[in-house]
Amino acid sequence: METITSEMWASAIVLVLSYVLIFSEKMHRTIAAILGAVVMIGIGMLMGFYTQEAAILAVDGNTILLLAAMMMLVALLRPTGAFDFAAVHITHWANGNPKLLLIYLSLAVSVISMILDNVTTVIVFAPLTVLICRLLKINPMPYLMAEAMLSNIGGAATLVGDPPNLMIGSAANISFNSFLVHMGLPVLVVWIGTVGLMLYLFRNQLKSGGEDPRKLVATHAIKDAQGLKRILFALGVVVVLFFVHHNLHLLPAYASFIGVSIALISMRPDVEKLFGSVNWSVLFFFAGLFIIVGGVESSGLLDLFGHKLAMLAEDPAMLMLTGLLLMWVAAILSAVVDNIPFTVTMILIILGLESSGVNIAPLWWALALGVGLGGNGTHLGATANIIAVSESEKSGMPEARISPMIWMRTGLPVMFFGLLLASFVYWFFFEMFTTA
Amino acid sequence: MKIKHISIPTKVAHPGMRIGEVMWECVEKDVPGIPYVDAEGKLSGRFSVRHLFLLCCIPEDVIHGAHLLGDDIEHLDFPHMRADELMEEVVDDYIFPDAIQLSSNFQAIKALAIMEQYNTEYLFVTEEGEYQGVVTRMSIARAVVTKECCVE
Question: Among its keywords, does the record have Iron-sulfur (chain B) (predicted)?
Answer without folding.
Answer: no
